């Protein structure tokens, strides 16, 4: 979750002026607020998160202490592949996140034999990624979701319609899971090159190479 600062500037002989910052990660926002207070020229300082909730300095310190130990700053990549000869799908998911002061990458894949085509595999891959977030205990977080299926992401944003009943059922499952987890998603369509890790995991699943690993990254 990112936050922007709002604060009053007290100028001599003038009415207070309200200022607002860009969105910052929680730690930087709190540090900036501390520096503002030291000037002795700022009035009340508020922190506004990406969904519009306002926090005081005291509330912000408590919030960050609680969030620090949970997975946060989530970025999810997903991709699906389909083997028409064997009629099975490979699903791949990469999740980048922070926990404590460390950064991690989780890689996982799955094979699924009840799908009909590559389009359906893309929806199933995103749903698979969401079930991993659920297993991680992720709740009430912002989450950036990236994939090379523009159709899936644009339909979730409500920009493109979906006319296929089967795919609409997958959209319903995805949206319900997002609601259950209290996620606030930001969808970002990327090129296949940027999504190559998730694509490779989907391919490995079709080859029978199952992966579920978590590692710390710098």
TrEMBL record:
Keyword list, A-Z: Nucleotidyltransferase, RNA-directed DNA polymerase, Transferase
NCBIfam families noted in UniProt: PRK07708.1
Domain of life assignment: Bacteria
Residues of the signal peptide: none
Protein's name in the database: Reverse transcriptase-like protein
Chloroplast found in the keyword field: no
Alphabetical list of InterPro entries matching this protein: RNaseH-like_sf, RNaseH_domain, RNaseH_sf
MF term (GO), any: RNA-directed DNA polymerase activity
Domain annotation RNase H type-1: ranges: 70-207
PANTHER family named in the record: POLYNUCLEOTIDYL TRANSFERASE, RIBONUCLEASE H-LIKE SUPERFAMILY PROTEIN, RIBONUCLEASE HI
Keyword Disulfide bond attached: no
Coiled coil: none
């Amino acid at each position: 979750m990112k936050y922007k600062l709002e604060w009053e500037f007290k100028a001599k002989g003038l009415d207070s002026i309200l200022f607002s910052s860009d969105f910052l990660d929680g730690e930087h926002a709190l540090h900036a607020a501390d520096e503002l207070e030291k000037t002795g020229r700022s009035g009340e300082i508020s922190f506004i998160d990406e969904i519009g909730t306002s926090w005081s300095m005291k509330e912000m310190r408590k919030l960050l202490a609680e969030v620090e130990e949970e997975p946060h700053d989530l970025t999810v990549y997903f991709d699906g592949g389909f083997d028409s000869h064997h009629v099975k799908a490979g699903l791949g998911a990469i999740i980048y996140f922070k926990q404590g002061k460390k950064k991690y990458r989780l890689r996982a894949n799955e094979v699924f034999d009840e799908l009909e085509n590559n389009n359906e595999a893309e929806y199933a891959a995103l749903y698979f990624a969401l079930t991993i977030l659920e297993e991680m205990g992720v709740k009430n977080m912002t989450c950036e979701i990236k994939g090379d299926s523009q159709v899936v992401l644009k339909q979730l944003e409500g920009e493109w319609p979906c006319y296929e009943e089967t795919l609409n059922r997958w959209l319903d499952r995805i949206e319900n899971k997002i609601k259950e987890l209290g996620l606030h998603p930001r969808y970002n369509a990327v090129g296949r090159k940027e999504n190559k890790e998730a694509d490779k995991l989907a391919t490995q699943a079709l080859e029978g190479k199952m992966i579920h690993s978590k590692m710390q990254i710098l």
